[in-house]
Amino acid sequence: MRTRGLVIFDAFNTLVTSRPGYQGTFLAGLTAVNEHASADLLTTLNAASEGLDHSDWSTSRQVYSEWTVRTLASLAQAGAALDRELASRVVPALEQLHQAPMAALPDAADCLARLKDAGFSLAVCSNWSWDLGADLAGTGLVRWIDVLVTSAQIGYRKPHPRIYQATLDQAGFGAADAVFVGDSLRTDALGPQRAGIRSVLLARDAEEQIHPEQVASLGDAARLLLG
Length: 227
Prior knowledge:
By secondary structure, the chain is of the alpha/beta class. It has 2 domains: 6-19 and 102-226, HAD superfamily/HAD-like (Rossmann fold, 3-Layer(aba) Sandwich); 25-97, no CATH class. The chain is 45% helix and 14% strand. The protein contains 10 helices and 8 strands. The strands form 2 sheets. Strands 5-4-1-6-7-8 form a 6-stranded parallel beta sheet, with helices on both faces.
């Protein structure tokens, strides 16, 4: 079947979430190495990591893992005195060293199956550890996914344009033939748009529209794309 184009999905909070009992894994990892850990600090650190270029440390899994270990060791020594460079590295380190087991969100499998059956190629592009494929293997979703792209391996975090381009290159599509679906306005909607990729914002609990193509579920996303 001739493909109808490429649909790129974010992973966490779009297709998958942490299994029950593991929702606080990142915060637990942060707390283990820094006495100033809090949910607010984790939010700040996540924002600081957006767009990070860590390509010098993404040459191999071993090099990348050692970089993340050093990051958490530096965090333990820094206490509350986090400089910008260290702050931007903390969430990637937590992703590599404290990633929780994943479960598929209820509407994910049906969405992927419908799009695949309709002739779309499917990719995942995610700010994630080196082990994205292994982490998603237990969710039952990888059977429909053609390309998996993770920031750890590519060396750039969304919304850096190079991670979107790497996804297009690996899937063999141009930006004009792709759509990005995800739950973050900055990294899954505006970032892809700046790279020339159409975006659909998944906003399950939104009370107002903040993006021109906004849906409340993956089922709605599938219906929009199938048109």
